[in-house]
Amino acid sequence: MAQLPYWIWLTTRKRLTLRGQQLALSYFGTPEEIYRARHSDIEQVQGLTDKEVAALGQKDLDGAKTILEMCSDQGIRVITSRDTAYPQRLLAIDVPPLVLYYRGKFMPFDELPVVTVVGSRKASAYGLAVARRMGNQIGACGGVVVSGAAKGIDSQALEGALEAGGMVAAVLGNGLDIVYPRESEAVYQAVASRGCLISEYPPGTPPMARNFPQRNRIMSGLALGVLVVEAAKQSGSLITAGLALEQGRDVFAVPGNIGIASSAGSNQLLQEGAMLVTDGWDIMREYMPRYPEHIHELRGTPPLELRQSAQPRQEPFLKVASPVEAPKQQKKSRNPLKFVKMAKNPEPNGENGIDNEPKRNYIDLQEKLSALTADEKTIATALIPGEQQVDDIVAKTGLPVARVLACLTLLEVKGYVTQEPGKRFTLNIN
């Protein structure tokens, strides 16, 4: 507990990327040692920019202590990447958060079959009904449902799992003291009381747009696989699916109506090799050999009830009373997208990216990008001429849109890429 102020101080430095945080942490060993280091010593850390060195020179713990007081007052707890309870599954991703804030019961994610469910906020009645049923079945089978608590697919999946008496966790893109959107307040309260709310952002952090793509890496990082129920092209859900691939996670998708835009992205994932699923058991049977003590097989599928609204229900969450029985044996299918290897030595995330500077020649660029994955290098090279839209990058690289979106997110949080107005991207190289 005595070290927490230093962890929070380190992770709340403006203009210090997560890459910079990790470089400093690796060099000095602990946040306290970084805090006590002289300016001349900080300058010795290879890879830090001048602005990051200056950020680490701000020796003031008052902000960190205020955050800890807010956490204490609001029932929020803090866990660091050095704590034994920190999920190793999450620690292994390319850009793990150094600090997590949580409210509720922080479950042992590594010991449980965790599935992240994502999809459109403006889903169809079909998508909402499918999300609720998927969450219900995963929860009834013994799985953990992770989502983002947004209205639409997220909330429906969480509500379905809660109704089945299942375990749930919601990862937020803002401080845990802020309900966003307001329509999700009922889901917030239910998850906090019966599951766990998680964020890498301290209390008081508003729901800024740049936080949510970064949040998605945590959602996929906690899970064994990601289920996309209904998603448009170039959506946050596809970013999460792409991040899942980068992290070596399974990707599942529900087939959607070919006539609506909100299903175009999830249908595209199926074309690219995601596993087609029609119920929760399709997913859970994949993990039953690894978690036989947690997963229970279900027989029968309840009728698909279409809901016209994604608004949270006003009545209490109800436990599903359907019996648990063994189904007929089904042939195990394998996900062709499974176990995509991720680059080692993560290049992390932060509040601000690297400032724009004049572009350098190709040889210098290759040297600067040597730590990136092959896809990230390809995308970075495609950005050399200047601002590019996602469609332009897809056309130049030939990569699937989900992978392009995921790589752009990682490049942005690493400080290599900046997103400009109009969803245009530019390359930043020191």
Tell me what you see in this structure.
With about 425 residues, the chain is α/β, with parallel strands linked by helices. It folds into three domains: about 1-75, 5' to 3' exonuclease, C-terminal subdomain (DNA polymerase, domain 1); about 75-340, Rossmann fold, CATH 3.40.50.450; about 360-425, Arc Repressor Mutant, subunit A (Orthogonal Bundle). It contains 18 helices and twelve strands. It has a nine-stranded mixed beta sheet, with helices on both faces. α1 packs across α6 and α9 (about 155-165) crosses α10. The longest helix is centred in the N-terminal third of the chain and has 16 residues, at about 125-140. The protein starts with a helix and ends with a strand.
Number of domains: 3
What is the average per-residue confidence, as pLDDT, rounded to a whole number?
A: 84
CATH class of the largest domain: Alpha Beta
Strand order of the largest sheet: 1-2-6-5-4-3-7-8-9
Oligomer: single chain
CATH topology of the largest domain: Rossmann fold
Number of helices: 18
Radius of gyration: 21 Å
Looking at the structure, what is the overall shape? globular
Class computed from helices, strands and strand pairing: alpha/beta
Topology readout:
Layout: H1 4-11, H2 18-28, H3 31-36, H4 39-42, H5 50-56, H6 62-74, E1 77-80, H7 88-91, E2 99-104, E3 114-118, H8 125-140, E4 144-147, H9 153-163, E5 167-171, H10 185-194, E6 196-199, H11 211-221, E7 225-228, H12 236-246, E8 250-253, H13 264-271, E9 275-276, H14 280-287, H15 362-368, H16 374-382, E10 388-389, H17 390-397, H18 401-414, E11 417-420, E12 424-427
